[in-house]
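Long-time lurker. I teach an intro course on protein structure, and each term I like to show students one example going from raw sequence to a predicted 3D structure in token notation. This year I'd like something fresh instead of my usual example. Would anyone be willing to generate the tokens for the chain below so I can use it in lecture? Attribution to the forum is fine with me.
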Amino acid sequence: MLTGVSAVDALTTLVRGQKLPVFSHAGLPHLRLATQIAAQATAGGAPFAVIFAGMGLTHADADAVRDTLDARAAAGELTLLINTADDPVIERILTPRLALTVAEDLAFAEGRHVLVVMTDMTSYAEAVREVSAARGEMPGRRAYPGYLYSDLASLYERCGRVRGRPGSVTVLPVLTMPGGDITHPVPDLTGYITEGQIVLSPDLHARGVYPPVDALSSLSRLMRHGAGPGRTRDDHLDLAAQVLAALARARQAAELADLVGPAGLSDVDRRYLDFERAYRSGLVAQEEGARSLAETLRLAWDAVLVLPRSELVLLPDRLLDAYGRPS
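-- Reply from a regular --
Happy to contribute to a lecture. Here you go:
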């Protein structure tokens, strides 16, 4: 399933039937990213639908979501469920369940591939905590009820495919980590249930990069089942591995530059810093508009080809000759 967002499609590919959360911090553009994905995602020409479940949104955010998804609604591909911050808490608990029930009907009765975007799951978990406290139930970690794990699992595990039936349900939950704490119960428990995560970076956001996806902290555990030869393109997986490896080396070079200064770096280390700039400004930065997979992979090639061929050890010669720099 293509989202049209290069940082996701290239490096943390979303696969039909997967549950892949977005981990964010307060103040980061996670709602903008969620609505962008909901507006431009496709299923490769197959029957498709989007369910957007907003929980605890401000009225301004709710209006922005409606405006962004207007074209998808006009195409008859959108179901929108909005719970604002001043709506009853019990409605916030019902919203994702209603969204997933609609998704299951569209997927397994009508044969569509359905993307369910749910934001913000932290608001949902706080609603569960509030109702639990009102019932006088025994609190668990950070006053959340002890059954929060099974409650979240009862939502996330409703995604997938059914053998013998067309259609699929893919879930993209978005959650903010209070205080940026990834060990907070909501992201912590979500990580045990889901199949990877897309992590947004405050550092990239401070540099003005949108979407601020931290590729080295992000992971799609099903990517190898939905990308590569016969699925996306034969160079996709090897190219993604090379980009991630080069990005890790570039961060080491940046740390070294902070210690000894750029002049003290080797020529190769300076090339890795050039790669990181090309990666950040070319592949990741995407203010608006959907990118095709071909355009996304071209930008990934442009970034890695900043490096000497001797450094591209994860790319076979046949791919370098076909897509990159001939020997």
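Some talking points for your students: The chain has a mean pLDDT of 94. The longest strand covers residues 48-57.
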